[in-house]
Write a structure and sequence with these properties.
Blueprint (H helix, E strand, L loop, with lengths): L1 H9 L7 H20 L1 H13 L4 H11 L2 H12 L4 H11 L2 H13 L4 H9 L3 H7 L9 H28 L10 H11 L6 H19 L5 H20 L4
Helix pairs in contact: 1-8, 2-10, 3-4, 3-5, 3-10, 4-10, 5-6, 9-10, 12-13
C-alpha cells in the first residue's frame, strides 16, 4: 500500500499542474486544525508503545502501517495486559469497522479514479479524512485536495507518534497525564457539525448514555455495544419520523 501512496506523492513534484498543487495545499491547510488536535493522542500512542515494551521501530511501525489511533491505543493496552493475538485482532476489527462503511459511502465518488489513487486514498481513509471529503459528489471531488488532507494528517500522526516515543523513553507514565482526552475532543469536533436532524440527535444521545452506563458497569464491550444501540435507535427514529428534521 505504501508504494502506491509514494506514487501519488511523487506526482506532487514541480511537474504537477499549478491547480493540482493549489488543491493539495488547500487540503493540507483544511486538515491542520484536526492534525494539531490529535497531537496528545499521537504522543500517547508513542509513549504507550514504549511502556508496552515495544521497540521504537515497532511503535513507529504501528502508526506508519496501521494508521488508526483508537485501534492502536486499544491494541497496545491489550498487548500490555497480556491479551491473546486473536482477541486483539477481533477487537481492533470491531473498532475500525466503520471504515468499511466509509469506503462504501465514498465508492461512487472514487470509482472513476485510477487504481493507484483508489488504493492510496483508501490507505489514508480516517474519520478526519471522511469528515472533510465525504460531502463532495463525483463532479466536485478533487483527488489532489483529498491527498492533501490525508497525507498531511498521516505525516502529522507519525511525527506526533515519534515525539511520543522519544518522550516515553525519557518521561515515564505519560498515559497518566490525561492526554486521552484529546480523543473525546477530536470526535466531538467531528460529530457536532453532523448533528442536524432528530435521528442523528437520538443516535448520539443514546450512544453517549449507553457508553457511560456500560462503562460504569465495567462492560468490556461498552463502546461497541453503545455504538450499535445508538445506530439502531437512530434508524428506528428515522423510520418513525420519515426522515423529517
Amino acid at each position: 500500500m505504501l508504494p502506491y501512496l509514494a506514487k501519488c506523492v511523487a506526482a506532487i513534484m514541480p511537474s504537477s499542474p499549478p491547480i493540482a498543487r493549489q488543491a493539495f495545499l488547500h487540503g493540507a491547510i483544511a486538515i491542520l486544525p484536526l492534525s494539531l488536535a490529535v497531537a496528545p493522542w499521537g504522543l500517547l500512542a508513542g509513549s504507550m508503545a514504549i511502556e508496552a515494551n515495544l521497540s521504537a521501530w515497532q511503535g513507529q511501525g504501528l502508526s506508519a502501517i496501521v494508521f488508526a489511533g483508537a485501534a492502536q491505543l486499544v491494541a497496545i493496552g491489550m498487548l500490555k495486559g497480556g491479551a491473546s493475538l486473536l482477541s486483539i485482532l477481533l477487537t481492533t476489527l470491531l473498532l475500525t469497522s466503520q471504515h468499511l462503511l466509509y469506503g462504501l459511502s465514498m465508492r461512487p465518488v472514487l470509482s472513476n479514479q485510477p487504481l493507484r489513487w483508489r488504493l492510496g486514498l483508501g490507505f489514508l481513509l480516517t474519520d478526519e479524512f471522511f469528515a472533510l471529503t465525504s460531502h463532495y459528489d463525483q463532479q466536485q471531488f478533487n483527488r489532489w485536495y483529498a491527498l492533501g488532507v490525508g497525507l498531511t494528517f498521516y505525516v502529522a500522526w507519525n511525527l506526533f507518534t515519534l515525539a511520543g516515543i522519544v518522550l516515553g523513553q525519557n518521561i515515564p507514565h505519560l498515559d497518566q497525564l490525561g492526554l486521552d482526552f484529546s480523543i473525546v475532543a477530536t470526535f466531538v469536533a467531528l460529530i457536532a457539525p453532523l448533528v442536524r436532524n432528530l435521528p442523528t440527535v437520538v443516535c448520539v444521545a443514546v450512544s453517549l448514555f449507553c457508553s457511560v452506563l456500560f462503562s460504569y458497569w465495567h462492560w468490556e464491550t461498552a463502546l461497541v455495544a453503545a455504538g450499535l444501540l445508538g445506530m439502531a435507535a437512530g434508524f428506528v427514529c428515522q423510520k418513525f419520523t420519515g426522515g423529517r428534521p
